[in-house]
TrEMBL record:
Domain of life: Eukaryota
Chief place of localization: membrane
The organism of origin for this protein: Recurvomyces mirabilis
UniProt GO MF annotations: transmembrane transporter activity
Keyword Acyltransferase in record: no
Name of the protein: Phthalate transporter
Residue ranges of the TM segments: 243-263, 275-295, 356-380, 392-413, 419-439, 446-468, 515-534
Length: 574
């Protein structure tokens, strides 16, 4: 039975762009497709033989345009068969969505190009920062004669410099390409991370944190921008979940490495945490050097002496890569990967109020788990566990974090839900914070351990929110700035978060936990507000768009000066 289904799928094709473009923009939402009146549904209806008032000739009578099952992201070019295929007799609208000539994949753009879903699946399969915590468990604070509040100040300095480096880093990345800028960042911060081994007190600790923040700032948005060159909008959440999974997997490896490296305390008169910074920083530097040669600029620029003279893909695969991404979001062809933003474009991105609810969420949604993320080793040390036990006991937290991250992203894709599902992260941490606040001071160390790892493992909706930021931006320009602004809001929450647990409130941090409980309630309300906000905008646009004739829609598309998410036919993901 399964073989029969696969055989059936292999006969399907991804439709030519002209077939599925019709008179609609490729960023329709599932709701927009499903609720459009049958007579106006441009993706699954017979259309009469007529010419629009704007002079654009429409498909002939009797021809049909099919779309496949609606999913988390619009699939306007969907799955269809060759029978009943329709194409434009004029290239007017195809030209409107055509990428600029300097776009790096322009030579592979072909609106008539077809491929099978099986080919695309094979191709996608082909594609497919954090030792300060372990150092704390080795009494780094004691060796440097600094307090918890000094450590808080150091983390605040780190996040402030990280915050202010976000936008400049994104602008540099857009100018020279993330394939160049990301390795430069990695090698640079590895040098600073290694030199942390020579810290001698509070001032040097703060200086190192400032330099690290300045260099690491923008790393995540740079990666998001880079991944958007390769993947469709609906594929980003899962790929971003893999990104943070690898980060947590690194934390697990770091915990094991720390267990061994911290035993080097005393060798050459150095503390174990100094060896930890030196060795792990060196390893990061080596990875950065390899990345410089390994990361290609784009799907059509993979050939090099290091990656192979023939590159990673043949001509057909490159055409699939380019056309599938552009048919999902034609705005990705509006700029090439070495094109900087001008001031006007930058200012327009900053003023885009449609993105503000996501930025507001970035300020607070992660706050309830930040103190535990930063202090888990200190909390476990305070519960009576030793240096090496503490490092090993953090591993289950990392593993559970990975599981929750992958599960919530998978569910989001399956049920096509983002904001309400992301609110689960707050419902998860709510009873845990209540328990931390209410349990007696003489509770078992094991109770503290269980609650600590569960708070740390809060379902991480960051990948979902990062992807929806990219999706709702609407253009490459806005996406570049919006990714940085969202991450800046998250880093601002880190600045707040590392100052919630205070020296005078230890070891139970009762006051801090009350603050976190209030934030949980606020976040739940904010997630619901964001959902209603975008649904309302979509409904208003749908009402106007649904009342327009095909001729009026065609005229709007050919004459409008609206860009990206300002367009009447753009639908926000929610």
């Amino acid at each position: 039975m399964r073989d029969a289904r696969e055989k059936c799928r292999s006969k399907q094709i991804i439709r030519p762009f002209a077939d599925i473009l019709a008179i609609g923009h490729p960023l329709f939402s599932q709701k927009h497709l499903d609720e459009a009146p049958e007579s106006e549904n441009l993706l699954a209806t017979e259309m009469s033989d007529k010419t629009s008032s704007s002079g654009i000739e429409l498909p002939q009578n009797g021809s049909k345009i099919f779309h496949g099952k609606a999913a988390a992201q619009p699939k306007l070019f969907g799955l269809g068969t060759r029978e009943g295929r329709t194409t434009f007799k004029t290239e007017s609208l195809e030209e409107y969505y055509k990428p600029i000539n300097s776009y790096e994949g322009a030579h592979r753009y072909d609106p008539q190009f077809e491929w099978t879903p099986a080919e695309e699946k094979r191709l996608v399969r082909k594609l497919d920062r954090g030792n300060i915590s372990q150092a704390l468990s080795d009494d780094m604070l004691g060796d440097l004669k600094i307090t918890t509040n000094d450590y808080n100040t150091g983390q605040t300095i780190f996040y402030l410099t990280f915050l202010f480096a976000e936008l400049p880093s994104q602008l540099i990345s857009k100018k020279i390409g993330p394939d160049n800028w990301i390795p430069i960042q990695m090698v640079s911060w590895s040098l600073v991370a290694s030199f942390q081994a020579f810290m001698s007190g509070r001032s040097s600790f703060w200086a190192c944190r400032a330099l690290l923040g300045m260099i690491e700032g923008g790393f995540i948005p740079d990666n998001i921008l880079y991944l958007s060159y390769w993947y469709k909008g609906g594929e980003l959440p899962r790929r971003l979940s893999f990104f943070w999974t690898s980060y947590q997997a690194t934390s697990i490896v770091s915990a094991f490495m720390a267990f061994g490296i911290l035993h080097m305390r005393g060798i050459n008169g150095l503390a174990g945490w100094r060896w930890l910074f030196a060795l792990e920083g060196t390893l990061t530097g080596l990875i950065g050097i390899v990345s410089w040669f390994y990361i290609p600029p784009s799907p059509t620029q993979t050939a090099s002496w290091f990656r192979g003279r023939d590159g990673w893909f043949n001509e057909r695969e490159e055409k699939i890569m380019v056309n599938r991404v552009l048919r999902d979001d034609p705005s990705k062809g509006d700029m090439h990967n070495r094109q900087a933003l001008d001031f006007q474009g930058f200012w327009l991105c900053l003023k885009d109020w449609h993105m503000w609810p996501i930025y507001l969420l970035g300020f607070t949604w992660l706050l309830p788990s930040i103190p535990m993320n930063q202090y888990i080793t200190l909390v476990l040390r305070g519960a009576g566990y030793g240096t090496f036990e503490t490092n090993l006991l953090t591993i289950p937290a990392y593993v559970l974090f990975i599981v929750n991250l992958l599960v919530i992203c998978w569910i989001s894709e399956k049920i096509n839900e983002r904001f309400l599902l992301s609110a689960v992260s707050q419902l998860w941490v709510l009873p845990l914070l209540v328990a931390l606040e209410c349990l007696p001071a003489d509770r078992s160390p094991w109770a503290t351990w269980i609650l600590s790892i569960l708070v740390y493992a809060q379902p991480y909706a960051h990948a979902i929110l990062v992807a929806i930021t990219s999706r709702n931006a609407g253009t490459v320009r806005t996406r570049t700035v919006a990714s940085a602004l969202y991450n800046m809001s998250v880093q601002t929450s880190n600045i707040i978060g590392v100052n919630i647990y205070r020296q005078e409130d230890k070891p139970l941090y009762r006051t801090g936990n009350k603050v976190l409980l209030a934030l949980v309630a606020y976040n739940i309300v904010l997630f619901v507000f964001a959902k209603i906000f975008y649904v309302t905008i979509n409904q208003r646009r749908e009402k106007i768009w649904g009342a327009m004739t095909r001729d009026e829609r065609a005229y709007y598309l050919s004459t409008t000066t609206d860009k990206g998410n300002k367009r009447l036919d753009f639908r926000f993901a929610h």
